[in-house]
Write a structure and sequence with these properties.
alpha/beta
Length: 468
């Protein structure tokens, strides 16, 4: 049960209970594959809507062992992706989904409070900043469009306000979104697991799916048993890439997190005592925040060479991050006074990246009884809460606004097969790093770097639309 991820180790120190592995044949109304946020929120919703429903959830390791327990803990809405959402879903649906994702931020906090989940939830908003002139105004297309519609999710900040709120002089400009929060991600997962079990969900851990039989009804096979279910929901994050039709629409790449030892006094000297998370405007996004016990958390998305070749995740993303040097450089740029801050640990995790940065939800291969959700692209802590409504509606064969959501869409062929994909991931990554290093230094990126960087999928926050 030991883990290099501080979040997971901390959560397991408080709750190391693991459900038994599945053995023998089980019958269920719904079998959910995956014990992270999407799977657990879906299981909880199903039982709340119909307590008599027989719901089985299987997890290949323990709930929270994957990206849901390893992420940076940013609970964000989809407003930063509004332009892309509008392109994919249309204006009205984009606004509805962004509003729903913003409500999810508050609903997650209320859920934790009502169920006694100590997930270190802090709703202090989010700063989206530019750290160089080339990134200034990354949010402008979104804000200009929304302001014409009298929608104001972001607040424009002056340079002095940016410096004061970020507690750093390294930023050029920025905006603030009040509806955002942070959590200790693994504690949230373990709390959701506890609630799901209390509601009557049968949870089986250390139970990987070895085969999905696309029969009627579908069958989920495991090493020591099987589940025959009326409906199957695949909520496996990066591991969903094992299915060929899904693999063509996502690329599984690495994300990295590093944390310092506790230093509350030093953060207090900077004035950084609230829980505001901060992101820059790079495509290979950098993000940072503090924790209630006074640690500084730094994260990078897509910088490492980690890539799940052929959709095989395995142990590729386990262990300490190889990007500590780069993350320390970011920290030192932002907070020069913390250059000697001791690093406690770091870790990596897989990210199911879609080209648009938005998830796909639907029925696998058109099978009416097998549904899936994938492609949260590093921003799933909050949106999985909203998307569990979509999965529940698909499972229940409803014809409501969730089942008809614009995110329920055909999987598109956005990434080439191996080995071209592996080479492409490496090439685009190198181009993005070169482009962003030039921009940070105030130089114009080279034509070759610009060209290949244009193939990069949208990351955590981007004002780009799909046709730019």
């Amino acid at each position: 049960m030991a883990s290099p991820c501080h979040w997971i180790a901390q959560a397991l120190a408080e709750d190391d209970a693991v459900s038994p592995a599945l053995e023998g044949e089980h019958k269920a109304d719904v079998c959910i594959v995956g014990g992270g946020y999407l799977g657990l929120w879906t299981a909880i919703r199903l039982k709340q809507e119909d307590p008599k429903l027989d719901v089985v959830l299987i997890e290949q390791s323990f709930c929270g062992s994957g990206p849901s327990g390893r992420n940076g803990g940013y609970v964000l809405s989809w407003w930063a992706k509004y332009q892309t959402m509008k392109k994919v879903c249309g204006t009205a649906e984009a606004i509805r989904l962004c509003q729903a994702s913003a409500r999810s931020v508050d609903e997650i906090g209320r859920f934790c409070a009502s169920h006694g989940i100590d997930a270190e939830y802090r709703r202090d908003g989010w700063l989206w900043l530019a750290t160089c002139a080339a990134h200034d105004g990354a949010w402008s297309p979104i804000m200009d469009d929304l302001e014409r519609r009298q929608i104001h999710p972001f607040e424009r900040l002056t340079p002095d306000e940016v410096s004061a709120r970020a507690h750093s002089r390294a930023h050029v400009t920025g905006v603030f979104e009040p509806t955002a929060a942070t959590v200790q991600p693994a504690k949230l997962v373990r709390g959701l697991r506890r609630v799901a079990i209390k509601l009557g969900v049968q949870v089986f851990e250390n139970t990987p799916m070895t085969r999905l039989v696309r029969s009627y009804p579908p069958v989920v096979e495991t090493p020591r048993g099987r589940v025959v279910a009326s409906k199957v929901a695949l909520a496996m994050n990066a591991w969903t890439a094992q299915f060929a039709e899904i693999r063509k629409a996502i690329a599984v790449i690495g994300s990295d997190v590093m944390i310092t030892e506790p230093m509350p006094e030093r953060l207090a000297e900077l004035g950084y005592t609230d829980g505001v998370p901060i992101s820059d405007s790079r495509t290979l996004v950098s993000a940072w925040r503090n924790t209630p016990d006074g640690r500084l958390v730094t994260g990078r998305g897509g910088v490492s060479c980690l890539h799940a070749y052929g959709g095989r995740v395995g142990t590729t993303f386990d262990g300490r991050s190889t990007q500590e040097k780069g993350m320390r450089e970011i920290r030192d740029l932002l907070y020069p006074g913390l250059k000697d801050a001791p690093t406690a640990t770091s870790w990596s995790g897989p990210v199911d990246r879609s080209k648009s940065g938005l998830p796909f939800l639907g029925r696998l291969g058109g099978h009416r009884d097998i549904v899936f959700g994938v492609g949260f692209s590093g921003n799933g802590v909050g949106p999985t809460h909203a998307c569990s409504r979509i999965l529940c509606s698909l499972i229940g064969d409803k014809q409501d606004e969730w089942a008809k959501s614009g995110l329920v869409r055909p999987l598109t062929y956005d990434f080439p097969p191996e080995p071209i994909r592996h080479l492409g991931v490496w090439l685009v990554r190198k181009a993005m790093i070169a482009k962003e290093e030039a921009e940070m230094a105030g130089r114009k990126p080279g034509a070759i770097a610009n060209y290949f960087a244009g193939f990069a999928p949208n990351m955590l926050a981007s004002g780009k639309t799909l046709d730019e």
